[in-house]
Amino acid sequence: MTQVFFYHGASDKIAAACALLGGAYAKNKRMLVYAPENDVASNVDRMLWTHSALGFVPHCRSDSPLAAETPILITDNLDQLSQDDRLMNLSQVVPPGFSRFHSLIEVVGQEESDRSSARDRVRFYKDRGYEVRYFDLGER
């Protein structure tokens, strides 16, 4: 069964997501980032290029010719990708087909709209028997 992790309370949701992606890359863990909204995907892409002056997190869009070789993929479509280990959800909805992944990472900001949709997703997962673990990013 998919493990579900909610990282909540992020003052900057994109920066928090990029920090988590950097940590995954440092541990040689591949990650698929579900960002169906183009502005969110573009912001993640841009921040991964600039978030650390001393490091680089290899990433690309899922339709890139380099996607098969790249550990962090940003996508708006989960249907055509074979990676099924870790999924990071940056949308406001339950990602389609999330149950095929070993881990689902949800990143939640402090805005009320983000928190409200996250509560709906928590209910969805719990109603279907998934255990949800929480990590408060506001305490850092």
Polypeptide structure, described:
With 140 residues, this protein is α/β, with parallel strands linked by helices. The protein has a single domain (3-97, 111-139), classed as DNA polymerase III subunit chi (Rossmann fold). The protein is 31% helix and 25% strand. It is built from three helices and seven strands, in the order βαβαββββαβ. It has helices at 13-26, 38-50, 112-127, and strands at residues 3-10, 31-34, 59-61, 72-75, 86-89, 103-109, 132-136. Strands 3-4-2-5-6-1-7 form a seven-stranded parallel β-sheet, with helices on both faces. Helix 1 crosses helix 2. The mean pLDDT is 93.
CATH architecture: 3-Layer(aba) Sandwich
How many structural domains in the coordinates? 1
Please give the order of strands in the largest beta sheet. Answer: 3-4-2-5-6-1-7
Rounded to an integer in angstroms, the radius of gyration calculated over CA atoms is 14 Å
- CATH H-level name... which superfamily? DNA polymerase III subunit chi
Number of strands: 7
Task: State the helical fraction.
Answer: 25-40%
Strand content: 25-35%
CATH topology: Rossmann fold
Low-confidence stretches: none
Structural class: alpha/beta
Quick one: CATH class?
Alpha Beta
Shape descriptor? globular
Overall average residue pLDDT: 93
Distance between the termini: 30 Å
Q: Give me the number of helical elements.
A: 3
GO molecular function: DNA binding; DNA-directed DNA polymerase activity
Protein name: DNA polymerase III subunit chi
Organism: Candidatus Dechloromonas phosphorivorans
InterPro entries: DNA_pol3_chi, PolIII_chi_sf
